Amino acid sequence: MARTDAPRTSAPRTSARGAVVQVGEFAVGTAVAYVAVGAAWAATAAVWAPLLVAAAVVALAVGMEIRFGPKVTGLVVGLLPTAVVTAGALAALTVVLARLSS
Q1: How many CB atoms lie within 10 A of CB 102?
Q2: Angstrom distance (rounded) from CA 35 to CA 47
């Protein structure tokens, strides 16, 4: 019997420069998410502010990924989880501090 397997395609190779660019994008995305969500929380000290800013950052990141594709994957991967986790942590901290002060 003859083999009828589809030809194998190799995964795209990433150059060292490409990897460095993605790591740099990730670092920038992480920093932007921390600053945006943290600034919203510092300005208002409200539960809803970091959550709204995180939702805006997530929408921005999704839009960038749809528009630019793999060119901004490192940035998007830095933005998404950092914004969501930071907003959740700051919202929880706000609730706990409000509970302790009452």
Answers
A1: 5
A2: 17
DSSP 70: G
Spatial distance between the Cα atoms of 100 and 96, rounded to a whole number of angstroms = 6
- Report the pLDDT value the prediction gives residue 83, as an integer from 0 to 100: 96
DSSP 55-69: HHHHHHHHHHHHHHG
A 10 A CB-CB count for 31 gives 13
Instruction: For the chain, give the number of residues.
Output: 102
pLDDT by residue for the chain (102 residues), tens digit each?
Answer: 566 666 666 666 778 888 899 999 999 999 999 999 999 999 998 899 999 999 999 999 999 999 999 899 999 999 999 999 999 999 999 999 999 988
- What the block records as the tokens of 60 is 């921005």
Looking at residue 99, what is its pLDDT? 93
> Do 50 and 40 contact (CB within 8 A), yes or no?
yes
C-alpha–C-alpha distance, residues 75 and 24, integer Å: 8
